[in-house]
Amino acid sequence: MVGLPILAVFVILGGIWLQFALAVIVVVGLGEFYRVFSKPIKSVYYLGFVFALLHIILLGDHGRFGAVIMVIPVFLTIFAMIFMVYRHKSIDITDCAITIFGYIYVVLTLSTIYLMRQWGVYEVWLIFIAAWGCDTGAYAAGMTMGKRKLAPVLSPNKTIEGAVGGMALATLLGAAYGLILYHLGVMEQNFALGYAMITFVCSIFAQLGDLSASAIKRQKDVKDFGNIIPGHGGVLDRFDSIIFAAPVAFAILLIFEPFFRGVAQ
Q1: Are residues 104 and 130 both part of a single domain?
Q2: Which of 13, 30, 212, 240 has the lowest CB atom count within 10 Å?
Q3: pTM for this model (two decimals)
Q4: Whether the predicted pLDDT of 60 surpasses 80
Q5: Cα separation of 28 and 138, whole Å?
Q6: Are 219 and 255 part of one and the same domain?
Q7: 103 and 125 share a domain?
Q8: Contact 135, 207 (CB under 8 A)
């Protein structure tokens, strides 16, 4: 109730405002990720913060973003390895790998929200409809019909029935969203089927993202990544499904671009 209106404002405004919001989210999320592996955060991890902010700043340069995607991870790897050379007594290759993986897992994935917003203000909401719609459907179906455990070790409360219910609700919400936009005259074409396809596929990956985050927490013996959001844990606890859903949604739009042409921006 508190977070969604704030998120809506930044998504609708787009541009530098969305970049600012993403900068806050990825820096906090990256800090949560690194603290799972080391308290206090190891010195090499701070390279991840520097390159994360550089990445978000350069998001606005659309003409060169493809090059940025290639260059920043490469130079983060180079500098992390150089850091290890001079701090080899306290920093090892595992620390370098964690630094780089944190950047990919948190920053690279969540930055696709900005790319989706550049595609269109209406399309970007498909990410959240898929992820949070799936959460809601999975909770409701799991509470009412759940019997068979989905991943009893990683997440004991999740059920197969809940997973199916989550996918079903996300798909229905995607189709309804497309129909509503079309009948309101926002869209030039009826993309209900396409939106249903996107939210269906993203709902699968959203659940995998949730389970992947649970695997990390289970292996590192922590309940939540953080406690910044009352009742939800940290930023990564709230965005774990978004981390997988956002790049998948963007990839689908790119692959099926001819189908989605004619969308009002």
Answers
A1: no
A2: 13
A3: 0.90
A4: no
A5: 27
A6: yes
A7: no
A8: no
